[in-house]
Every structure is written in C-alpha cells, then in structure tokens.
Amino acid sequence: MKYYLNGVDFAQYGVYVSDSRGFLDALELKEPVALDWPDYHGQQVDLSAPRYRSREITLECFATAISKSDSVQKLTEFFNELSKPGLHRLMVDTGEVKPLVYDVYRQGAVSVKKVWRGGVNIGQFTLTLIEPDPIKKVYSYTAATGSMQVSFTLTSEKLVTIQWGDGTSTTGRGENIALSHDYTNAGTFYPVISGVIDEISAITTNATLVWNSL
Predict the structure, then answer these.
(1) Where are the beta strands (DSSP E) in the chain?
(2) What's the pLDDT score for residue 66?
(3) CA 148 to chain centre
(4) Residue 66 to residues 16, 70, 76, 100, 118: CA-CA distances in angstroms?
(5) What is the pLDDT of residues 43-56, one digit of tens each?
(6) Is-contact 136 188, C-beta < 8 A?
(7) Where are the domains of the chain?
(8) CB of 179 within 8 A of CB of 200?
(9) CA 60, CA 77: separation in Å to the nearest integer?
(10) Where do runs of H (alpha helix) occur along the chain?
C-alpha cells in the first residue's frame, strides 16, 4: 500500500509505514442518553440516533536516508507538513480502484529512534493522527480543461462540511443548498462530505461517489 500526505507520497520524504491501526476500526460510541428508573432493571438507553467519537489512526513508520543530514532534512520536511494549519489529507492507495481518504491532524509528540544498518540511517517512530469528523461520504472528481468546477446541491438540517481535497473546505446547511468549488490545477480530487450524513435527505453532484460511508 502507498500512503500520501496532502497529495505527496510518504516515500518522497523517505518515510514508509510498517504497520497501521484505526483505518477500519469500529468507532467509539458517544455516551447515549440513558434513564435509570429505580423500579426497573438496568437502564433505558436511547440509541435511535447514535453519535460517534473521533477516529484515531496509528501509523508505525520508519524513515531511511543515506546520511544523518539527509535524514534530518527529510523528517523535518515531513513533520513540518503535518504542522501546517488546518486538517491534512491522508490517503491510502490499496492497489484497488477505491482509495481510503481521511482528513486528519497530528496528535502528541513524535519520538524518533535512530539506528544505522548497512550504512543507511533509519529512524523509527509512531505517528498518531486524529480524524475529528469521521463519518463521511467520499467522492471523486477529475478536473480538466473546461471542467474545473465540482458542485453539490444537498438538503440537510444539520451542518455539513465538504473538504474539497486541495486543502480548502466549505460548510453549509439548508434546503437545496448549492456548494461548488473551482480547482486551480488539473487532476483527480476526492471531495469528502462529513457530518451527520445519514440525515442528508438529497444530494445531486457532478462528482462520482466512491464511498457512501467510510
């Protein structure tokens, strides 16, 4: 599998993933409303509209470089990219048609263990990433000359967010609200709609649905 950070292959930073957790784990349920009647056994729990906590993704990583200075430079660039303002697009290419897409931020400090093996500098570290809005629909849109705008018209009483896949986002709610975005570069992008997506009553778009729920 290949891992991409804001559209750049981890390998360009000399970073590789040896193990991962959290991508497809069942999310933790938020505490539901419960009534504890003294004259009844147990509790009455309202699970009619379950809500979930953020997703935590753990990546066991190693970085390779031909020298200590090369190692410092590559890792600094990688961590600086994760330290930029806003969410960061993490994409996993599984080798199939559908990529896994997450908008995340880094949590906690990162401790790098450095070793030399066969004249190669290797740094090992654990990366913890948080996806704050984990319930989402993922779409695909190919921007090309004459067709650079992706658009959605949707109805939702609750606020939804669209991450356009190029580092920008739009929020909105209402009946038949029109949300669109113009890409400045050609290529394939993955707009993501997140929020209480099960309460979106209608969506029309010129994008292609990749994951109805991820």
Answers:
(1) 2-5, 8-9, 15-21, 34-35, 44-45, 55-65, 88-93, 100-106, 113-117, 120-131, 136-143, 149-163, 169-182, 187-189, 192-194, 202-205, 208-211
(2) 73
(3) 23
(4) 15, 6, 15, 31, 10
(5) 999 999 999 999 99
(6) no
(7) 2-25+53-131, 136-211
(8) no
(9) 18
(10) 68-82
CA-nearest of 150, 158, 157, 201 to 179 is: 150
DSSP β-bridge partners for residue 187 = 143
Contact 62, 126 (CB under 8 A): no
Residue of 131, 136, 145, 151 lying closest to 185 (CA atoms): 145
> What is the third-level CATH fold of 2-25+53-131?
Elongation Factor Tu (Ef-tu); domain 3 (2.40.30)
Amino acid identity of residue 214, one-letter, is L
The predicted model gives 185-208 an average pLDDT of 95
